């Protein structure tokens, strides 16, 4: 899933262990699943030249265009608005 950019893991702390944030997961029938809209958004951010760390910073930083953090907008179903905002990073 990491290689396919379906989920994002970043290094945290001095141990350099990879961590996956609970913000990227949703409940599907009592089981954790990857936020479905994350894959396409990570692809758009990668196409814009973002590293995994830069993508995570962008997803979790307040975004004036969206009025909230992109990860929160994705979780609320505002996929197209997030992808439009991500597309502007390429310019």
Tag the structure with descriptive keywords.
4 strands, two-stranded antiparallel sheet, alpha+beta, two-stranded antiparallel ribbon, 91 residues, 15% strand
Description:
- By secondary structure, the chain is an alpha+beta fold.
- It is about 35% helix and about 15% strand.
- It has four helices and four strands; from the N terminus they run ββββαααα.
- It has helices at about 40-45, 50-60, 70-75, 80-85, and strands at about 10, 15-20, 25-30, 30-35.
- The strands form two sheets. The chain has a two-stranded antiparallel ribbon with strand order 1-2.
- α1 (about 40-45) runs parallel beside α4.
List the helices and strands and how they pair.
Elements lengths: L9 E3 L4 E3 L5 E4 L2 E4 L3 H10 L4 H9 L9 H6 L3 H9 L4
Antiparallel strand pairs: 1-2, 3-4
**How far is the N terminus from the C terminus?**
28 Å
β content, as a range? 15-25%
Could you state the order of secondary-structure elements as H and E? EEEEHHHH
pLDDT < 50 stretches: none
What fraction, in percent, of the residue positions are helical?
25-40%
Strand order of the largest sheet: 1-2
Characterize the largest beta sheet: strand count, sense, and whether it forms a barrel: 2 strands, antiparallel
Q: What's the Cα radius of gyration?
A: 13 Å
Give the overall average pLDDT: 92
**Structural class estimated from helices and strands:** alpha+beta
What is the 3D form?
globular
* Number of β-strand runs: 4
Number of helices: 4
């Amino acid at each position: 899933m990491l290689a396919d950019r379906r989920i994002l893991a970043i290094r945290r702390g001095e141990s350099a262990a990879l961590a996956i944030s609970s913000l990227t997961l949703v409940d599907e029938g009592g089981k954790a699943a990857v936020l479905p809209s994350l894959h396409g958004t990570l692809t758009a951010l990668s196409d814009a030249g973002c590293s995994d760390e830069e993508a995570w910073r962008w997803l979790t930083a307040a975004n004036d265009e969206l009025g909230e953090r992109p990860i929160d907008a994705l979780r609320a179903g505002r996929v197209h608005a997030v992808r439009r905002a991500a597309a502007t990073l390429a310019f």
